[in-house]
Amino acid sequence: MNQNEHVEALQDIRKMMQRSSRFLSLSGLSGVFAGTYALGGAYIAYLWQQDFLKEYFSPEYRYEFRGLLEDTYFLKFGALAAGVLTISLITGLIFSAKKAKKAGQKLLDHGAKLLLMNLAIPLLAGGAFCLLLIMRGDVLLVAPALLIFYGISLLAAGKYTLDEVRYLGICEVVLGLINGFFFLGDGLLFWAIGFGLLHIVYGLVMWNKYDRAK
User: Fold this and answer.
1) SS3 helix, strand, coil % of the chain, rounded to 5?
2) For the packed helices 28-56 and 66-102, what is the interaxial angle rounded to 10 degrees?
3) Which of 3, 21, 87, 91 is buried most, with the most CB atoms less than 10 Å from its CB?
4) Residues with Cβ < 8 Å from 16, sequence gap 6 or more?
5) Domain segments of the chain: what residues?
6) Which pTM value belongs to this model?
7) How confident is the model over 98-106, as a mean pLDDT?
8) DSSP-assigned letters across all residues of 11-54
9) What does the pLDDT look like over 138-191, one tens digit per residue?
């Protein structure tokens, strides 16, 4: 009995250490909302893209203004992407805070800090690399590169949260590679799939598995 009690005590300590190093308050609904925002943003970007192409190849549009038109389009697209990301982060924080409060846990605990750090490093590196691609004129590579770096960041952060995050990361990397190797001109479509549909599917799985029962 004494030995069994020691084994159980060690198991309890191990579980406590795992919980302290993993952020378990991710909400499935935040993934659904983030995916919905991404699909809405992709649709708006598609409409802008059609208008841009009409103006850019219009016979009336003088060649010397096309560079300005390109700069305006990329600024609008960048602002839209930043807006979608900001709203998604705010929504995620709200849902995660509610889930953490319900479970009697802190939102920014040790596990959350490890998660954010491992998520941020590949994302920042990917953002810098994509900025370099834009400066060099390799715009078509930006979409697959962001998907790949985003997937890598999820894989790195997945060690400190639920396992489903890593599966989402693998899907994002594979999607980015498919986009880069076989459908290089369809970046907007792959963004809609990667940041939109995959997040919705992931969010529904998470909600059904972890949130619905509670």
Assistant:
1) 85, 0, 15
2) 170
3) 91
4) none
5) 29-211
6) 0.86
7) 82
8) HHHHHHHHHHTS-----HHHHHHHHHHHHHHHHHHHHHHHHHHH
9) 989 999 999 999 999 999 998 888 889 999 999 999 999 999 999 998 999 999
